């Protein structure tokens, strides 16, 4: 059965006109006529609701009480699963009102904290000599009360669409480290069972966490550990000094139920982190690991990685460089042998060291790895090419899985292409036409039963892109 959108809108308009033009109802024992839409099963009504934009959906819900009830679940789960706040007084007031709504409040799952024009604007924020916020605070208490009332809101995503001008910080707005401190403070005060915690410092124009703005002593409290122990998804994107790595390591170590870990921290810190993690007696049973921006120096990362051999199902590596003792050919063979539960592999912009000879001298050179074996290979299932676009003279075919935005940002729509996007194939073409046209595959992703064959093909075809002389 196929119902066109115009037919739905026509029925909806007719229903509204009938209601608006109706005279005083005449008392009668005869049953009142029922709208055709109201007689449909709830599954069909939800299918219709999914085809409508927000304005038409609201009109549909206003048509009658029956339709309002049957579309409530779709309406709430679609438009209120993610709630945005900039921690301003007006925004927090709206969040508090939503938390008290009997029908809609329980649909909220994730709190997005961002503010291109400044977070926390409108409040006076007192600080200690170390520049950390002084708690308790009126705005923080309002946020805490709302989160306790929103019983299903257990995920937090701190990000920004564009870099906030630094001058905003001079007008009383919060820095990203302050926002992290507020959320962690609430967890420490209430044992709030957090499910996901995602913080993107790059999106705020910041390169690292300001450790002096965090309340480190609070994170040792039993209340904090009880709430944080429920964490399943952790994403942190920043560039940090090794001096601060202990703070992040403690967060990971305090999350025994962690299932998805996504890190984009820069080479120096990443190597330090895995050096220490390799000595941990117990690691969480990770099912998904996303790593970006690493110049790998030793074996500690793979020592840790292979300890997830019986649990890791998804592995994504981006902008990842091996040390001089390894090649990607041998590395993919090891992944094939050690990660027995793996179902999804995604690689993008990998590199390795090669030896080249110039002017009679032999010297090491780090080169990007391509995968020519995937050119023209239709046997890998799930490849559907999207429209190409041009970037710096390169023609890019971006193959995406549109069912999800990836492990790093589950369910967050229209996010920029960062680690976590499910690339299936990434092809670039130098020169738009002519005899010099050359295609290269810089990234591949696959999810399915033939993961072993794909890893074999990755190992077989991994080829460094030699420098031009």
From TrEMBL:
Residues 38-69 form the F-box domain. Pfam families: F-box (PF00646). It comes from the Eukaryota. InterPro entries: F-box-like_dom_sf, F-box_dom, LRR_dom_sf. Gene3D superfamilies: Ribonuclease Inhibitor. This is F-box domain-containing protein. It comes from Hyaloscypha hepaticicola.
